[in-house]
Design a protein that fits this description.
By secondary structure, this protein is mostly helical. The protein has a single domain (2-293), classed as Rhopdopsin 7-helix transmembrane proteins. The protein has helices at residues 2-46, 52-69, 71-79, 85-119, 121-125, 128-153, 172-206, 214-246, 254-268, 271-293, and strands spanning 154-159, 162-167. The protein has a two-stranded antiparallel sheet with strand order 1-2. A hairpin with a 2-residue loop joins β1 (154-159) and β2. α7 packs antiparallel against α8 (214-246). Residues 1-6 have low confidence and may be disordered.
Length: 294
């Protein structure tokens, strides 16, 4: 009887968490999609098209739109039985992870570009337009590559008497490898690159070398910080799971906790895609000045 009550309690908490997560995702989609579309339209109409900073901002807005447009699908997946089949399950997983990864790598590229352009502009000028286009193309190639493991491990499964597009459970060793790679490639490595770029950039700022572009530097720094603030909950859950699997032990209640708050933590990663248009609004004057001078 105690196990039955516990199971019913976990199921009720899980259902409530799904409802909260779905409401959040619906809000983010309603705010973020039109906001980012407006950003794309404004950039195309008002900004110089051959400026790499503008291209990166446009790329970020496009990846945010693609990512946010999948949210109704995941709301449906959480609240109802999945009836769209295996192929669409894999397609939407690939789309959301590709666009989310492309968004992350674009933010990383923004920080690297800002550092190189300011601290050693002659090196960036040698890259040329073809090199810049290659960098933009490679962002999406690597974004798709990072989505492949998720696409391969997603199937239509039965979870809590409901069919959903979910991750297939594999061995502990496989879970450890996937979680570790995901944390390394989508959190530790990009964060290390960004922190290094902005630390070196800050050194130049304090020396007065960036007086004319401090406003834009602050804006892109905020974009980076916001990205990792809202993605950190998912990675913290990953780190707890990694340590538990590595030490061959399970933390009491961790799986129930993960099932309950995991979807909410994932939904919060979409906040950044909604905040970015507001940051663009504040950055518009600096972007236009950068577009005209570069």
């Amino acid at each position: 009887m105690q196990n039955t009550n516990s199971s019913e309690s976990d199921s009720a908490a899980w259902s409530q968490a799904n409802l909260v997560s779905s409401v959040l995702m619906g809000f983010f989609c309603a705010v973020g999609v039109p906001g980012n579309i407006a950003v794309i339209v404004i950039i195309l109409l008002w900004f110089k098209k051959d400026n790499f900073t503008v291209h990166l901002m446009l790329n970020l807005a496009a990846s945010d739109v693609l990512c946010l447009m999948t949210l109704p699908v995941w709301m449906y997946n959480q609240l109802f039985n999945w009836t769209m089949g295996r192929s669409l399950c894999k397609f939407f997983i690939s789309l959301v992870y590709s666009s989310a990864s492309a968004s992350l790598m674009t933010v990383t590229m923004i920080s690297v570009h800002r550092y190189v352009q300011v601290c050693c502009p002659e090196k960036w000028s040698k890259l040329g337009k073809k090199g810049e286009n290659l960098l933009l193309f490679s962002i999406w190639v690597f974004g798709f590559a990072l989505s492949v493991p998720e696409m391969l491990t997603r199937e239509v499964i039965l979870s809590r008497s409901k069919r959903e597009c979910g991750r297939v459970t594999f061995s502990d060793e496989y879970r450890l490898i996937v979680a570790a790679l995901e944390t390394l490639l989508t959190f530790v490595l990009p964060l290390s690159i960004m922190v290094t770029s902005y630390y070196r950039l800050h050194q130049r700022v304090t020396q007065g070398a960036l007086f004319h572009s401090q406003r834009l530097t602050r804006i892109v720094t905020i974009i980076v910080v916001m990205t990792f603030i809202f993605s950190s909950p998912c990675h913290l859950i990953n780190l707890v799971e990694i340590s538990g699997v590595a030490m061959k032990r399970s933390y009491p209640g961790f799986q129930a906790f993960k099932n309950t708050v995991g979807d909410i933590a994932v939904s919060f990663t979409f906040i950044n895609s909604c905040v970015n248009p507001l940051l663009y609004a504040f950055a518009s004057r600096s972007l236009r000045q950068s577009s005209q001078t570069n």
